Amino acid sequence: MRIPLLDSVPMPPLRIVLVDDHPIVRAGFRQLLEMEPGWEVTDELGSAREVAAWLLTAACDVLVMDLSLPDGDGLVLIRHVLAQKPGMAIVVMSMHDGALYVQDALSAGARGYVTKRAAPDELVDAIRAAGRGERFLGKDVRAQNHEETDEAAGLPELTSREAQVFLLLARGHSVSRVAATIGISNKTAYAHRANIYAKLHLQSDHQLRVLAERRGLVS
Length: 219
Fold this sequence. Notes:
Number of strands: 8
Strand content: 15-25%
CATH architecture of the largest domain: 3-Layer(aba) Sandwich
CATH topology of the largest domain: Rossmann fold
Distance between the termini: 75 Å
Radius of gyration: 20 Å
Largest sheet: 6 strands, parallel
Order of helices and strands: EHEHEEEHEHEHEHHHHH
Structural class: alpha/beta
CATH superfamily of the largest domain: Response regulator
Oligomer: single chain
């Protein structure tokens, strides 16, 4: 007896949400991503506040987000999103390609990291990989990390964690924001800052930023 073939079951659409504070950037990426069969951009969000409100009622398969938002730190936001929705796949799309930015994003729970200078197909590949539960780094990110294994190379006096705290302070983060960004307690963050001050003979965050600029670690 001949067994009839079962109709193939269509794959559910891949739901994507874009987080960037520039509407024209979101529109361009929406157009790119919705060219992929079965992909749908379900929401566009422009701030950390909008993401927090969206988390209360909505869901998606992949969240594509910038780290630089007008009202919040993207690294803190990654941790907040994953605390609310642990299974969320997050791809960072940022202008920053420094090793510690990438390391911090991946440590916070992001599955992918591409820069805004990357070729469009890299974002597509990153989303596809994240949707499968895999990690993806863009070509320029890999190249930068190969050339500059760690921005901490410019801070040989410090441990890798101290260098991480140093760079966040140099970028203007408060101690409490540093703690939230890298997932440590305020007490531990203050202890790291004290160690940094002692090792580098500093007395203030202003002196720290001047030193970071002198060593070419921040602009």
